[in-house]
Write a structure and sequence with these properties.
- It contains 5 helices and 20 strands.
- It is α+β, with helices and mostly antiparallel strands and 339 residues long.
- The protein has 2 domains: 68 residues, no CATH class; 245 residues, no CATH class.
- The strands form 5 sheets. It has an 11-stranded antiparallel sheet with strand order 11-10-9-8-18-17-16-15-14-13-12. A 3-stranded antiparallel sheet has the order 3-6-7, covered by helices on one side. The protein has a two-stranded antiparallel ribbon with strand order 1-2.
Length: 339
């Protein structure tokens, strides 16, 4: 037999001179690199290889029966079983840091459809809002441009422009005073490494792209150190991470705690795509569950988000708030969640 593990073909395994078992050798599968003589291994072993051509382990049991059994068992293992979920998450976090810089160069339009539920628990569209997503001081900002698919009147447009300028000024002051923090109740992706137990659940294909599926649950017995951690640990997370670009294709947050306005069982789902071979951005999302305003008030809610008209700007503009002073960069809105 050719001992080259990169060669594809077939080999016969002879067990104690009685049985003949034929195995198909393919790349990324266990490979016998030796032969049986009178029921014994004549040197070599079984080598497991991954797509990155790293040798994971070598086994050399003495009996050919053991070799055949081990070969069958190992061949049944999926390739993703050898991957480390922590390393996958670290690679994603590094890639996402670079992606945020590219994402801040885009604006896009977000339409949110709000649903109410009748007495038969059937959803009915209640209203919609359309926002332009722009970036102020590096943070996403939603600028309202339409209600129920009708543009705002002149008075409301003026109010929205005034609000945008006020937020820009506030963010600039906060940044200069050192108090500018990005507040996200669902936490940052880095929280996954410290507050959650992470498991690799498998591989799936999302819109033609292969993805690792990572399941993250709050660490058992982990007491929240502050309000932020209480909110973060109220969610279990499931991420579909693109194997080629190490970016999120889909995220699913499920409420498991009672420290937020959503009650357990509520889900928040986002779908992401690569835009024009540039940044990865959210293209759609759904919030589905119940709110809790008081002990007995638990209305069902559903909101559907659709993003479109993505537009990249190569040059940033600014809003001037004082003579000779800029309020920080503002990517122009037109045309055309961060975590």
């Amino acid at each position: 037999m050719d001992p080259n593990p990169e060669k594809e073909g077939e080999v016969n395994a002879i067990v104690s001179g009685l049985n003949v078992t034929r195995f198909t050798l393919r790349r990324d599968r266990p490979v016998i690199v030796s032969r049986c003589v009178n029921g014994q291994f004549a040197g070599g072993g079984i080598v497991i290889r991954t797509s990155s051509r790293r040798a994971i382990a070598t086994f050399a049991p003495r009996g050919c029966i053991g070799i055949v059994v081990m070969l069958v068992l190992l061949a049944a293992l999926p390739l993703w079983a050898a991957e480390d979920p922590i390393e996958i998450l670290k690679g994603f976090i590094e890639a996402e840091t670079r992606n945020q810089e590219r994402a801040s160069q885009y604006t896009y339009v977000e339409q949110a459809d709000f649903f109410r539920f009748d007495k038969n628990s059937q959803p009915t569209k209640d209203r919609s809002e359309t926002h332009e997503i722009v970036f102020l001081e590096g943070e996403a900002y939603k600028k309202l441009v339409a209600r129920n698919e009708w543009p705002l009147d002149a008075k409301e447009q003026a109010l929205e422009e005034k609000k945008l300028r006020r937020v820009a000024e506030e963010r600039l002051r906060q940044r200069r005073s050192g108090l500018f923090y990005k507040y996200v109740s669902m936490g940052t992706y880095k929280d996954l490494l410290t507050l959650f137990d992470n498991r690799l659940l498998g591989e799936e294909e999302i819109r033609g792209r292969k993805a690792w599926v990572i399941g993250s649950t709050p660490k058992e017995g982990r007491a929240a150190a502050n309000v932020h951690e209480k909110e973060v640990l109220s969610f279990a997370q499931k991420l579909w991470i693109d194997e080629a670009d190490h970016q999120i294709l889909r995220s699913l947050y499920t409420v498991v705690g009672r420290h937020i306005v959503f009650i357990p069982g509520t889900t928040i789902t986002w779908e992401f795509e690569k835009i024009d071979e540039g940044a990865w951005l959210p293209i759609s999302g759904v919030i589905d569950g119940r709110l809790q305003f008081a002990r007995l008030i638990k209305p069902a809610v559903r909101t559907e988000y659709r993003n479109s008209r993505f537009q990249k700007f190569d040059v940033q503009s600014t809003i001037t708030t004082e003579p000779g002073e800029a309020a920080g960069p503002l990517v122009p809105a037109g045309g055309g969640q961060s975590h």
